[in-house]
Design brief:
globular, alpha/beta, 15 helices, seven-stranded mixed β-sheet, 439 residues, four-stranded mixed β-sheet
Length: 439
Amino acid sequence: MNAETKIRNDLSAYWMPFTANRQFKDNPRMIASAEGMYYTTTDGRKVMDGTAGLWCVNAGHRAPRITEAVQRQVEELDYAPAFQMGHPKAFELASRLADLAPGKLNHVFFTNSGSESVETALKIALAYHKARGEAGRTRLIGREKGYHGVNFGGISVGGLVNNRRAFGTLLGGVDHLPHTHDIARNGFTRGQPEHGAELADELERMVALHGAETIAAVIVEPMAGSAGVILPPKGYLQKLREITRKHGILLIFDEVITAYGRLGRAFGADYYGVEPDLITTAKGLTNGVIPMGAVLASEEIHDAFMTGPDHMIELFHGYTYSGNPVACAAALAALDTYREEELFERAASLEDYWADALFSLRDKPGVIDIRAVGLVGAVELEPFADTPTKRAFDTYLRAWDKGVHLRTTGDTIAMSPPLIIEKSEIDQLVGTLGEALDA
């Protein structure tokens, strides 16, 4: 390329994900750098990150241990194939995650994203039953309003209509439990809702309809994040565990959002006291620095594959970048940061203060519900009759102009700040949202 060649940068080439591309490119919100709790825009404004990136920057931006670990790893070993060979950090990270995981979830399969973690967990569930001689267990059950990434398996078991409607026929043999979002009975509840545990009994109806011998797995988020921070009713997850265990069905927790401290514990399974058979993770695993995901599997599931001749591949599945050395280095440093800075404990200690702040918005214009758990929360707004989602998006834009980045999902404002947030910054974040709602 000679010096006179001009590089076109009118923003048109980049087709942005989950974005109103035309609106954005007409008035772009561009980030130049980040540190701690704050972004700096290309025009020099400081903007508080009220969503930890996309639910992932739990230790704050440019966490020193993670930055240094990535720099060292690139110089030492940038890539190693994951098939039929390995490198030490992948095994070290798997051991660390197995120690951190609840109960007997002591085996780890590495992926590159939450979507890939879900696909991996679904495939493991199907292959597990086949390995045990129950090949007829092929049905998968998700939940309305569930979000499990954007690959075909994930949108098939997922229950967000807009993520599904444009993509034709999805996986067959999939059913959905009813969602637990019930403002009429549970609006403005502090903590877990009182009503709705009985919705788990719908799984028994599906067993009666399809036959337990046809159902491989149920996948749910312990707390439904992308649908608008929908908390499980008291006893709901326990009922799902009881029913799945009774019928030999695997229970998968999608913890892409809830793992690594978001609820003040290592996993949502710990917070709610329910041990599933598989856990999917990503996001906070590397603090968002490098794409990486992981599926945690129980010993029983793992060992079911470890049969037959030793030289044969047990599971025909994996990715070019599974256990990438640089990602492993980032994840190990993230785990060190979480432990040494006691960020899980910090999130737990701030839970009540966070909830108090959010619930102070109860009487703001348009607010119809508020939900909070750990360091995640949602303010649901009454939609405009003729333009659903616009009320929340307009509020988001006003907050951005006032120096706070939030996230919208439908007509719900979602917040999930880095776990390093101070009480004064909680006040700033929630106060700015309040101003945006008043405007």
